[in-house]
Amino acid sequence: MNFHKKPVTHVGEVGLKVVNLLKMKKFYENVIGFEVISEEEDKVSLGVGSEVLVELEVVEGLTQKQGRYAGLYHFAILLPSRESLGKMLVHLHQQGIQLGSADHLVSEALYLSDPEGNGIEIYQDRKPELWNWSNDEVSMAVDPIDAQGLVDEAQKSSEPWNGLPAETVIGHIHLHMSNLDEAKDFYVNGLGLAVVSSLGGQAIFLADQKYHHHIGMNVWNGVGIPALPEKEAGLHYYTLVMENENRNKIAKNLRSIGTEIVHRDDYWEVKDPSGNSVRLCV
Fold first, then answer.
1. Domain of 34: which CATH number?
2. Which residues lie across from 169 on neighbouring strands?
3. How many whole angstroms separate alpha carbon 70 and alpha carbon 86?
């Protein structure tokens, strides 16, 4: 099962509102390893091959995020192998990047922030047959990572780190929400995703087709926090890629729960109850 290709509904691209486009572009190119796919005066599209995965856009009058808002906790870049994660670990260490890390049982993950404070996870999945499911929920944890094992994997290869591998995708997105019940209603009854894990009323994880999660959400910034203001840097949008037939069904469900859908040329746009912009793409 490829959890990041249709017919599975999955996150395709993340758009960020940024203050310093040049600084952010350099970070995502040199530190993370994206290629520039297209570039305008106020916008840079980055990705792998011809696939755009992250879009940086300068918005006039934008300021750095000051308070606690709904929006991005982190977006997650999924690498194709343990070896590629090991190479990334060595590369980030050589760059002097401050890192967090965790073994989530389903995956091994590194955590860092970009120069404007947006959270990034870089991870590799263990084989799905090794994931432990019970009552339709998958077991996940926050255990120490085997950093030496990852470095050993990297050193088996004669090829050094050379940017992101061709099979890299956006694995998932994790969001700060203002109300978990409202968010769950929107994502389950509206977007048709299933809850695959929950964390004591503090966080839930949702997915399509039994992935460990395409979307995570939490209230760790506080219940009732406001939406990210239009003129503050941070998450601009993210895309959910799906089959056309599924999008039509989802649109019907969203209208039934009172969600407004804006039809654009390339996507349909909705806002979740916490104000996060979701672009529905086929």
1. 3.10.180.10
2. 78
3. 32
